[in-house]
Specification:
This protein is an alpha+beta fold. The protein has 2 domains: 9-106, Glutaredoxin (3-Layer(aba) Sandwich); 118-229, Glutathione S-transferase Yfyf (Class Pi), Chain A, domain 2. It has 11 helices and 4 strands. Helix 3 links the parallel strand 1 and strand 2 (56-60). Helix 6 (118-140) packs parallel to helix 9 (187-201). The chain is globular. Bound molecules: glutathione.
Length: 260
C-alpha cells in the first residue's frame, strides 16, 4: 500500500502500459481522483465532489493531444470518454453512474434508495443521461455520427428534440420536487445545469440561437441559484468558467488544458 489510500487495482494496466506513467499512476493523496478536461462532462463530477465536501485530486486529460484516446486512458475507460473517477474501489466512468454512486455512497444530493422520491429521481437522472446527454453529443459531435457534409442537417434534426427534452424537464422542475428545485441542489440539478451551459456555448461554430434559457423558467431559477454556490465558485476558479457559468456562460479560460 502506497500512501494513505491504495491506488485502485483497476489501474494496474496503466502501470504495465508505460504510457504517461507520471500522470496516471501513483498513490492517491485523496480518496478520489478525477480525470478531467476543462468544461467537459467531468465538470459535473467536480461540482458534485465540491458540493459534497469530498477531498479529491485531478488529472488533466489533454484533449489537444487526444489523450482520451491513449492506451493509458482507454485502460480506465475503453470508450475514450471523459470523465473517469478513480475511487478506492476502482475507476468508474459514465457521468450518471458516477453521480449515482457518489450520492449513494455519501448519502447526499439525491433521495435515498428507500425514499418515496427515489423512483421519480431515477427516471429523470437516467433521462438526463441516456436521452438528453446522448442527444447533446450528437449536436456536439455530429461529424462522428454521419458523413461530415451532412453534419449540419443532423444538427438541425436534433435541436427540436433537445428543445422538447428541456420542456418536459422544465415541467418537472415546476413541480419542485426535492431533487429538482432551486433551494437545494441535487446531483441532477448540477448535471442539467452543465448540459444547459454547453447548449449555450457549443458547438462554437454552429447556430446556438435555438437555446434560450428563459424558455425554461423553472430550470432557469435552479441555474440562477447554482451560479452562486460555493461549489460553483470552486469550479469557476479551477476551470476558468467566468462569473455566471450557468445563466450567462462564456467560454472557459483554464490555466491548463482546453475544453475541446
Ligand atoms: N456518456 C458519457 C459521455 C461523456 C462525454 O461525452 N465526454 C466528452 C467530453 S464532454 C468526451 O470525452 N469527448 C471526447 C470524444 O468524444 O472523443 C458520460 O456521460 O460520461
Amino acid at each position: 500500500m502506497r500512501g494513505k489510500y491504495a491506488f485502485p487495482k483497476g489501474n494496474v494496466a496503466i502501470e504495465a502500459s508505460g504510457i504517461r506513467p507520471a500522470s496516471y499512476i501513483g498513490a492517491m493523496t485523496a480518496p478520489y481522483r478525477l480525470h478531467y478536461a476543462p468544461d467537459n462532462a467531468s465538470l459535473v463530477i467536480r461540482l458534485v465532489l465540491e458540493e459534497m465536501g469530498l477531498p479529491f485530486e485531478t488529472v488533466l486529460v489533454d484533449r489537444r493531444r487526444n489523450e482520451q484516446d491513449s492506451a493509458a486512458y482507454r485502460a480506465l475507460n475503453p470508450n475514450g470518454l471523459i470523465p473517469v473517477l478513480d475511487t478506492p474501489q476502482g475507476p468508474i466512468f459514465e457521468t450518471a453512474a458516477i453521480l449515482l454512486w457518489l450520492a449513494d455512497t455519501h448519502k447526499q444530493l439525491a433521495p435515498a434508495p428507500n425514499s418515496p422520491d427515489r423512483v421519480a429521481f431515477l427516471k429523470w437522472l437516467f433521462f438526463a443521461s441516456n436521452t438528453l446527454h446522448a442527444d447533446l453529443r450528437i449536436l456536439f459531435y455530429a461529424e462522428k455520427y454521419i458523413d461530415p457534409v451532412q453534419a449540419e442537417t443532423l444538427r438541425e434534426g436534433i435541436r427540436p428534440r433537445l428543445r422538447q427534452h428541456l420542456r418536459v424537464l422544465d415541467a418537472e422542475a415546476q413541480k419542485a420536487p426535492d431533487w429538482l428545485q432551486a433551494d437545494t441542489p441535487s446531483v441532477l440539478s448540477f448535471y442539467l445545469a452543465c448540459q444547459m451551459r454547453w447548449m449555450a456555448l457549443y458547438p462554437a461554430s454552429a447556430d446556438r440561437s435555438w437555446f434560450q434559457l428563459r424558455d425554461t423558467p423553472h430550470l432557469q431559477d435552479i441555474l440562477t441559484r447554482l451560479d452562486s454556490r460555493p461549489a460553483t465558485q470552486a469550479a469557476i476558479a479551477a476551470e476558468g468558467l467566468g462569473v455566471t457559468p450557468f445563466t450567462s456562460p462564456r467560454y472557459a479560460t483554464p490555466e491548463e488544458g482546453s475544453a475541446t
